[in-house]
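dumping these here so i dont lose them again. two proteins, back to back, each one seq then structure tokens. dont judge the mess
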Amino acid sequence: MNLSIGEIARACGGRLVLLNVKNGEAARTTAETLVDSVALDSRKVTAGGVFVATVGERVDGHRFIPQVFASGAVLAVTEKTPEQVEAECGEPADGWGSYLCVENTFQALKDMAEYYRSKLDIPIVGITGSVGKTSTKEFIAGVLAEKYHVLKTEGNFNNEVGVPLTLLRIREEHEAAVVEMGISDFGEMHRLSKMVRPDFCVITNIGQCHLENLKSREGILKAKTEIFDYMAEDGVVCLNGEDDMLRTVTQVHGKKTHFFGLGEWDCEEVFATDIVSRGLWGSEAVLHMPESPEFGVRIPLPGRHMVINGAAAACVARLMGLTKEQIAEGIQKIRPVGGRNNLLRLPEYTVIDDCYNANPVSMRAAIDLLAMADTYRAAILGDMFELGEDSDELHAGVGAYAAASGMDCLICVGENARQIYMGAVEEAGRQSEKAEEQKIYYFATRQDLLRELADAGRRSEFWPLGCTILVKASHGMKFTEIIDCLKQ
């Protein structure tokens, strides 16, 4: 990692104090001392690393500064002096080494990442959108890996803490990076773009999420397109042509936008046709790209939206110099990420684990995916968060969509999910021939459902052996506990 203590101090401001660790085990640090890594979690600090001490609701990271120096850290970025920590927390200050005292350590983390990015000479792909950011990231990173050594965002590190940590993981051996960028309010993407300075900007779609702050799809479009604010001067924009709002973004900074999709719109230059579904086990399609003969691809993840992800990856990869053979090979190697359309083949059931997050668009996509199963089909759907004043209506719409899809059993869990239940019951009532066949249940809490699932007899009332079960809700509903229960 080509970053020195002195450079960190200049990037972040504040007061740099160079000290030796008093136990004598650490080598003397100077402003020229290079750092190996940056961490907010004291347990992840390694020799030669930097610890950024943050103050959380329950834990003050400053308490752990002596421990990180004992682990070999060369610098702590702090909001407090050793004397302040000793006075406030009763922690002895004699274990401190060199530290940089700043006004706000979260801002210092972003300043550090922004400066580090300015030293990098590799292409960075920034990905945002309402739905499918992580899956699209996996597709693009997986395909680019056929030619380049790629670093990609890990887990859910896509916000104003995760993005700088991702940038600070880039090393000399990396030839490209794919960075997921998530927001919930205006201004956030502007700040993320300032750090990432993307060479390629990819937007997956403009759906109904974070409406509590962004109010409308128009607001979401405005917030997401802040990604262009600090795009590289010769940057490239790749957008989903299947999205009606993104299709209006035909130019960015005077340069033509590149569109991908399913060939349903004239604007799309990279698109998939002749799609053949293989059910829950993926699809086959024909990809079309400018100046290249069409070619077949196998998409190992199910659903129309995954075919679009494949087109997105091809759109970026083509512009980064990959051949059609490399693109096809990269797409067929894609594997699901835990909690996102992850198919689990259990002894008694097939489970679609999609419980990482949820909004109305992704709920409908997951329901469409379940409909591909050729078995008895059941769904456990929970609350969707941050939907604002239209929350009841949007939940009810998902319930109606679920009932109309023809699934055999629907279980709704959570306070907001009562509206899913009511929407489903109303829709089932309209379809009188199906009303008696569909089982629709409501549970107020996750714990209530888990108690029922613990009873084998009750489980058999919900669904038979060999069925397919979709599990989906916003991350805060903790539906991973339901997945664990089904695994047992």
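---- next one ----
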Amino acid sequence: MNEFVRAVEAVLFASDEPLTVEDIAAHVGDGDVKAALEELAAHYDARGIELVERGKRWHFQTASDLAHLLRREREEPRRLSRAATETLAIIAYHEPVSRAEIEAIRGVQISKGTLDVLMEAGWVRTGARRETPGRPLTYATTRGFLTHFGLESRRDLPGIDDLKAAGLLDPLDDDALQLQLEGDDEVETEDEDA
């Protein structure tokens, strides 16, 4: 392993967040960073840690087949409520999306804490304001969301056929689906805590 590859390895190891090729190049100077990353990925293949790319950013992570060894020592995170899970899914599939759009899709108002929980988890961030009356704030997912769920980009989110095949969607006949899509504009109030 040459000195340039070692320098790339050191930068990645010392970083507390995933880095782009440009970020790495800013630390190590001139050289073929992509070739160095490929060499390092091959070097760490089948080891206890691996070098992975998620959302065009590189980082080291525990090999997926050994992750169970570390789970015993981790604090078990609080499970998301149904409201928070639905809100996260809507943001991931429709981003950037405003609070009113989330409420229209869910059919209920969002309690204040729901978005706060998702933002505290580092999975959702505020986006730009819409150029519409009231200039509503929009929400989008973060790189932390991609990393946590093992996605390279939002294009890797499962499609409707994948969700049906996994049994995560209730089978609806076409008439029921059409009624649900047309629905009325009445919005209920959400009672769930995030």
